[in-house]
Design a protein that fits this description.
Length: 189
């Protein structure tokens, strides 16, 4: 592991505080960066695929006759299926409403594009996390675990992707971070 020590601290630093700061650099940080990048692109594809299949009904999760472009509702199947769950009344009432369909589909597309490209990771992590936590809440109580499922795991991964600047490797995140808009509004990173 490559370690660089920062010896710029003053000699009068607190005795209990370490006198050097170690940071990972070079080859030691590269494998982790690529793992985060692959996780980012993979999760981005999951969101993009959900958008594409629900839009065009390619027959994987959405039959052609229930595609969004064929007049189907991308939220009805999932939300109507939550009717017997703890929050089923709330979520079931949202099923099939046009504004819910549009927000859901915009979220899938926006998060998928941001993750795949590697730009807008902070907003994508927040929006994707919110979408996933709402889907998790709609399924309560869970059938196979008292509280944990893939929605929460993906939410944690989204947070990790944003915190790790995962868009900088195999993505446009580094370039995006240098733009004037992002320098002025860091939340866009």
């Amino acid at each position: 592991m490559a370690i660089i020590e920062d010896r710029s601290r003053k000699a009068h630093a607190h005795p209990a505080a370490p006198s050097t700061r170690a940071t990972l650099t070079g080859a030691a940080s590269r494998p982790a960066g690529y793992v985060w990048a692959i996780a980012r692109i993979s999760l981005g594809w999951i969101f993009l695929w959900a958008f594409l299949d629900k839009t065009f009904g390619w027959g994987f999760a959405t039959p052609a006759g229930r595609a969004w472009i064929a007049g189907g509702s991308p939220t009805t199947g999932f939300l109507k299926g939550t009717g017997d769950n703890a929050l089923g009344g709330l979520f079931g009432a949202l099923a099939g409403q046009a504004w819910v369909d549009w927000l859901f589909m915009a979220g899938l597309l926006g998060v998928g594009v941001a993750l795949t490209a590697g730009a807008g990771m902070r907003i994508a992590a927040a929006a994707g996390g919110l979408l996933l936590v709402l889907m998790w809440a709609a399924e309560l109580p869970l059938a196979n675990n008292p509280f944990m499922d893939d929605h929460l795991v993906y939410t944690v991964v989204l947070a990790g992707l944003a915190l790790a600047d995962a868009g900088d490797v195999l993505g446009i995140g580094a370039w995006w971070g240098r733009t004037a808009a992002v320098r002025r509004f860091p939340v866009l990173k």
